[in-house]
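Case 284 in the screening queue. Each case pairs one protein sequence with one candidate compound; here the compound is adenosine monophosphate. For every case the pipeline is the same: read the inputs, emit a complex structure as tokens, and attach any notable structural observations.

Predict complex for case 284.
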Amino acid sequence: MIHTAKYEADLHCHTTESDGVCTPAQVVRQAWEVGLKAVAITDHDTISGWSEAEKAGKQYHITVLKGIEINTDWEGREVHILGYALNANDDNLATRLSELREKRVQRIKKMIGKLSQCGVDIAFEDVLKHAEGDSIGRPHIAQALIEKKVVDNVHIAFDKYLKIGRPAYVPRNKLDPAEAIRIIRDAGGVAVVAHPGSFCTAQEISQWVKVGLQGIEVFHPENSADDRWRLTKIAKQNGLIITGGSDYHGHSVKPGINLGDWGVGMNVIKEIEQRSSIFFQQKD
Ligand code: AMP
Ligand code: FE
Ligand code: FE
Ligand code: ZN
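Case 284 output:
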């Protein structure tokens, strides 16, 4: 069944280049099918989906915003930082992201070791085969666990083994939100804290503003109505852009979430472009 987008622009989508189930071109085609005007490709630690998505964007007359999501660990919680309108040709960005992806591989291998200690034996190759793109992650372990009939779905895999506090969890290698913000800003991009829900305090957010944070993802399936109200207030107090997106991964990874279920108006793309140094460089 084809759904209709509830917003003009969905600024949070994953593809097969990280842990999504649709290729970048398929995501853009779906954006067109549901009636979106714009979509941001925000894969984890990789920009390798951008060029295919941009090509499809031209074909379907959909604006494609170049994005990224960098997951960090912060005081026992996960804080995800989105980046938008980054310089695709920035060598430093390419190096930093490739380091992060290499750390992902090491982390997945450690998690496989911890699973083995729990009596669950899977090989790295069992996980790798689900990671067709550039960036491997915990959802690929979840898929391997489903295939081996250890669990029935991704949600149970996280709840039982993979999330913070569960036996196979391994923390990321010392990456905090400020560093993720710096990586994005150094590449000319706009840094936005992703789906903070009720996990981040106003004080933490203003602390990250001091190191370059420029926006808050207010419209997201994991933010409650109360969260959206509180986060909107914090955004206004700090002069931050309010962004939104569905965090679309495909139904087998995140059931019940469709492209265009969450998002913002096209005016937000303008606000983002105005704050991106790439855009300014092009204008001057
Ligand atoms: P990683 O980047 O390897 O730490 O994996 C994080 C990704 O796993 C997130 O971006 C989500 O796509 C997914 N994820 C995190 N928590 C859950 C959960 N409780 N259930 C299903 N998927 C999750
Ligand atoms: Fe993900
Ligand atoms: Fe996220
Ligand atoms: Zn995401």
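Case 284 observations:
- The chain has a mean pLDDT of 95.
- Residues 91-117 form the longest helix (27 residues).
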